[in-house]
Amino acid sequence: MPAGRQPPRALEAPDPSPHPVMSVQTSHLDHVRDDAGYADILANWDATFYAKFARTLRPDRPGGRVLDIGCGVGQVVALLARDGIEAHGVDVAAPNIERARRHTERCVLYDGRRLPYPDGHFAVVGALNVVEHVEDPESFVREAVRVCAPGGRVVLSSPNFLRVLGFRDYHPRMRGIVHKWRNLLALLARRRQMRAAPESVRFERMPPIIKQPFAPDDDAIVCTNALDLAFFLRRNGCVVERIECTDRDVPRALGWLLNATPLKYGLFNAFVVARKP
Q1: In a domain, 34, yes or no
Q2: What pLDDT sits at residue 31?
Q3: With the CA atoms of 186, 191, 193 and 195 taken in that order, what torsion angle do they form, in degrees rounded to the nearest 10?
Q4: CA torsion, points 170, 271, 109, 55, in degrees to nearest 10?
Q5: Is it the case that residue 123 has pLDDT exceeding 90?
């Protein structure tokens, strides 16, 4: 860090919420907050991965602000800023924000609880591969919707840990015929619960995997899937406009066909776009 420059400090949120707050990447993920090696992993990730998500965050109208929650080292924010979009990012990890600020000062460290912005501040709010790592995902979704302006969009993208079909099954929850069968039963049970007792629905928690070497999403603690993401966006008053669950390597025509059927909930990813009325 250059001499005289202070390390990033977490912004405090205005107007404390009466609701419980989320806790992002705490306890078992405390190492991420100060681990420069984790920032290296994010910096070297596939650029097309970030580019695709950045395209989904473009505001509908010129002048709209965008927020990337869990912005990492700032790739998505940088891509949007290059196109003249006022893009902001927040993250709980100081090494991530230190790198992200090489792109823009609009990337800030925060405490992983209430977002440090007023209600309705952004035209688009997105979170790429974040929900699976938060200890209070219900509050996380509520906060994302809170800072989104009426008429704006909330975009959530996470792995589908309840996949029934697919390849590159990198997490034990996804791997093998036994787990896939259990995942199918879990999806069917979730749908029944959402219809019969929606007030009882919560994101499913799961223990992190502690091992070396580290594999993608070993540190995940929420069993994310498109069914749940869409449900909680609706619970917070949003209208779900789009659900896609195919991998970026799937041919476009095949992806369109798969996403047009209920099969999508058992596929690779969980990508949900919702509109705040």
Answers
A1: yes
A2: 55
A3: -170
A4: 110
A5: yes
The first and second tokens of residue 193, run together, are 């619960």
What's the domain range around 81?
27-275
Distances (CA, A) of 113 to 62, 70, 120, 272: 30, 12, 17, 22
In a domain, 35, yes or no: yes
Domain count, the chain: 1
20 lies in some domain: no
Instruction: Give the residue among 72, 221, 54 at the shortest CA–CA distance from 133.
Output: 221
| Positive or negative: CA dihedral 35, 40, 43, 45 | negative
Beta bridge partners of 205: 222
pTM to 2 decimal places: 0.84
Give the pLDDT mean for 26-55.
70
Reply yes or no on whether the pLDDT at 25 is more than 70: no
Confidence of residue 139 (pLDDT cuts 50, 70, 90): very high
CA neighbours closer than 13 Å in the CB half-sphere of residue 272: 28
The single-letter code of the amino acid at 213 is P
Using DSSP, state whether 218 is helix, strand or coil: coil
Instruction: Tell me what the mean pLDDT of segment 86-92 comes to.
Output: 96
Write the CATH number for 107.
Answer: 3.40.50.150
Reply yes or no on whether the pLDDT at 37 is more than 80. no
Neighbouring CB atoms inside 10 A of 120's CB total 15
- DSSP letter for 156, please: E
The residue type of 175 is R
The answer to whether residue 237 sits within a structural domain is yes
Task: Write down the pLDDT at residue 216.
Answer: 73
Count of other CB atoms within 10 angstroms of residue 56: 17
Query: Rounded to an integer, what distance in angstroms lies between the CA atom of residue 121 and that of residue 147?
Result: 5
CA atoms lying within 13 Å on the CB side of residue 110: 24
